[in-house]
From TrEMBL:
InterPro entries hit by this protein: Surf1/Shy1, Surf1/Surf4
Protein name as annotated: SURF1-like protein
Source organism of the structure: Salinihabitans flavidus
CDD domains per record: SURF1 (cd06662)
Record field: transmembrane: 197-216
Family: Belongs to the SURF1 family.
Domain of life: Bacteria
Residue ranges the record marks as coiled coil: none
Any one of the GO CC terms: plasma membrane
Membrane topology according to the record: Multi-pass membrane protein
Pfam short name (any one): SURF1
Alphabetized UniProt keyword annotations: Cell membrane, Membrane, Transmembrane, Transmembrane helix
Predominant localisation class: membrane
Length: 226
């Protein structure tokens, strides 16, 4: 019987650790769902004027409304959508009525329209401030000569367009026949894998219990035979 104490203790401790990890992921799931609900609410709020000094922490996803000119200066970010397949996001310089120069994510165009002329246009637009986190160590470098980017990197794009590091993702525009299809910001692209992680940890806990029971029975059987 003493031979069973160590594997039994090992099984109990391992199961407890795996269950605690699963419970922690359930807590993280509740937290993440609350955060996403808050973001969804902020996205759908009534728009306000563009803040004087927007910042990611204070103004992320803030609904804003402004008027000005979409210039002919634009960058193209290679992307894809479920309905259209491969597309380019059009990130354009935008000059507000009060003289500021920021960026707007106008939306998407088919790849074959990449080099089609898009003249400057005066518009009133509604959208959301956004600082996407799309770059990592695997993101290819932009190709300035071909004007192809592979992620929305707000600081880098602002330097290229000589604007403030501020991006409005367009939701609606007063342009009657926009040359670009808006692709509004949403919380759908924000990862929320905590449920899958919780199921994984609880599943591992169940496997751990089964393996512990099997091993204890095997040892007990060998002890009786001996």
């Amino acid at each position: 019987m003493p031979r069973l104490v160590l594997p039994l203790a090992f099984g109990i401790v391992g199961t407890a650790i795996l269950l605690s990890l699963g419970a922690w992921q359930v807590q993280r799931l509740a937290w993440k769902e609350a955060v996403l609900a808050q973001i969804d609410s902020r996205i759908a709020d009534d728009p306000v004027p563009l803040p004087a000094d927007p910042a990611p922490d204070a103004h992320g996803f803030l609904a804003v409304k402004t008027r000005g000119t979409i210039t002919g200066d634009e960058l193209h970010v290679l992307a894809s959508t479920r309905d259209l397949g491969a597309v380019y996001r059009v990130i354009a310089a935008f000059e507000t009525e009060d003289g500021r120069r920021i960026m707007v994510d106008r939306g998407v165009i088919p790849t074959e329209e990449k080099n089609a002329p898009r003249a400057p246009v005066d518009v009133t637009l509604t959208g959301n401030l956004h600082w996407p986190e799309e770059t990592d160590s695997f993101t290819p470098e932009a190709d300035p000569e071909a004007n192809i980017w592979f992620a929305r990197d707000v600081p880098a794009m602002a330097r290229a367009l000589e604007t403030e590091p501020v991006l409005i993702v367009v939701r609606e525009t007063s342009q009657s026949d926009p040359a670009v299809t808006p692709l509004p910001v949403s919380s759908a692209g924000i990862p929320n894998d905590h449920l899958e992680y919780a199921v994984t940890w609880f599943g591992l806990a169940a496997v751990w219990v089964l393996m512990t029971v099997f091993y204890l029975r095997l040892m007990r059987s060998q002890t009786r035979k001996g």
